[in-house]
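Duplicate of #3305? Posting structure anyway:
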């Protein structure tokens, strides 16, 4: 379907790549099904090792997502988190510096003081209500998959987020959503042979929410990339 047929214009690649960022507050209005199918069709064009296409995506919306929006924080709050993949979350050196800087920028945008643990906890819990998004793409891969297939799913998800961005939609990839693997599988009718790697909440950005004023920088090109002749 052309963008014109969908009633909106599409950003160029450079514009879409620059516009994408993690948005942590969404409007409630759903995205039309035809637009969703077009965007997820674009995501499917992502490359993968030997063209195995190891991603399995379930897009949750409507009553199904509302049930998860209630049960996810309840389960997490009562210690019932289940994860298919371990989360190390321990960074050192420059990686730790970047983690701290990103968190600082988010909490500053939300006017939350560094030592206000309660407010930080509440902000974190918003992960589990999907930042009010009307849709969440839960990304699974078959249990035989390893690190190379996880990279394939990463490529798929970035293609998805750039496609969303190009079509005027916002997203947030969330490792936090892998913390309800059993709940999500049960609610979505997914077999235990598929493992939940993360989720992407998406929809129209709530431009008024303070969290969405957050911008995080990138390292200089010279620090990440070397050109060798
Ligand atoms: C795989 C992945 C998992 C992430 N998990 C979370 C998450 O659970 N919660 C969250 O608020 N942000 C999450 N993020 C967003 C990162 O914090 C964000 O991408 C990073 O700070 C860079 O900011 P930007 O996306 O706005 O450019 C995740 C990003 C990726 C790629």
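Output from current build:
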């Amino acid at each position: 379907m052309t963008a014109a047929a969908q009633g909106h214009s599409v950003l160029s690649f450079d514009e879409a790549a620059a516009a994408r960022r993690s948005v942590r507050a969404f409007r409630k209005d759903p995205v039309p099904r035809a637009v969703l199918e077009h965007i997820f069709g674009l995501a499917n064009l992502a490359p993968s090792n030997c063209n195995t296409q190891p991603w399995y995506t379930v897009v949750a919306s409507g009553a199904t997502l509302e049930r998860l929006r209630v049960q996810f924080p309840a389960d997490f709050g009562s210690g019932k988190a289940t994860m298919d993949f371990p989360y190390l979350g321990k960074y050192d050196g420059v990686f730790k510096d970047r983690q701290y800087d990103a968190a600082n920028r988010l909490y500053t945008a939300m006017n939350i003081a560094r030592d206000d643990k309660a407010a930080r906890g509440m902000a974190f819990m918003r992960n589990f209500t999907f930042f009010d998004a009307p849709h969440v793409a839960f990304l699974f891969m078959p249990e035989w998959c390893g690190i190379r297939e996880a990279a394939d799913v990463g490529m798929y998800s970035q293609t998805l987020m750039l496609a969303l961005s190009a079509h005027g939609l916002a997203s947030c990839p969330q490792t936090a959503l892998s913390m309800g693997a059993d709940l999500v599988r049960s609610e979505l009718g997914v077999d235990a042979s598929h493992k939940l790697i993360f989720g992407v909440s998406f929809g129209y950005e709530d431009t008024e929410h303070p969290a969405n004023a957050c911008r995080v920088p990138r390292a200089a090109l010279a620090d990440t990339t070397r050109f060798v002749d």
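Confirmed duplicate; merging threads. The mean pLDDT is 96. Residues 115 and 187 are 36 Å apart (CA to CA).
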